[in-house]
Each structure stands twice: as structure tokens, then as C-alpha cells.
Amino acid sequence: MSSPDPRSVDPGDIEPIGATIAVAFTGAAIGLVGAAVSFVAVDFGVALIGVGVVVALSSPLAYVRMKRLRGG
After folding, report:
1. For residue 50, what are the domain limits?
2. At a CB cut-off of 8 Å and minimum separation 6, what does 67 contact?
3. How far, in Å, CA of 64 to CA of 39, rounded?
4. Which tens digits make up the pLDDT trace of 26-44?
5. What is the pTM of this model?
6. CB burial string 13-22: b at 16+ within 10 A, e below
7. Is residue 8 part of a domain?
């Protein structure tokens, strides 16, 4: 899929490790937002921290599983 925009990224160009890093970073960002929100709304903040941890930790686990399925 070619695009006239030189900054566009084809999904096939993203390596699995890059996607893993992006998802782990997103999980960390969600956790940090949860920590900030927990000063105002404790239950919601703790829930966001939990979601962030799950997202951040599931990313490397998914990468390892994918590598095993590919035989790498």
C-alpha cells in the first residue's frame, strides 16, 4: 500500500519488537495517568494503574508467544 505522504508507515514495516515496545509504553502511560488520577478519584486511579500494568506486561508475553509460534 503506497501513500504519497513520506511519513506514512505501512503496517508491514513495523517489526514485532517495535509493536511490543509501543504497547508496553502505552501500558506505562495508562499506569502513570492512573497514578495521577488516584489523588482525586482513588478507585478509578487504582483501576487505571491495574489496566496499565496488565497492558504493559501482556505485551512482552505476547511477543514471546508469537516467537514460539513462528519457530524463532
Report:
1. 17-69
2. 16
3. 36
4. 999 999 999 999 999 999 9
5. 0.69
6. eeeeeeebee
7. no
- Whether 10 is covered by a domain: the verdict is no
As given in the structure block, the three cell numbers for residue 64 are 514471546
User: 62 pLDDT band (50/70/90 cuts)?
Assistant: confident
CA distance 59 to 25: 10
Q: Are 66 and 16 in contact (CB under 8 A)?
A: yes
Of the candidates 35, 68, 32, the residue with the CA atom closest to the CA atom of residue 24: 32
Length of the chain, please? 72
Asked if the structure places residue 54 within a domain, the reply is: yes
Region of 71 (left: φ > 0; alpha: ψ -120 to 50; beta: rest) is: left
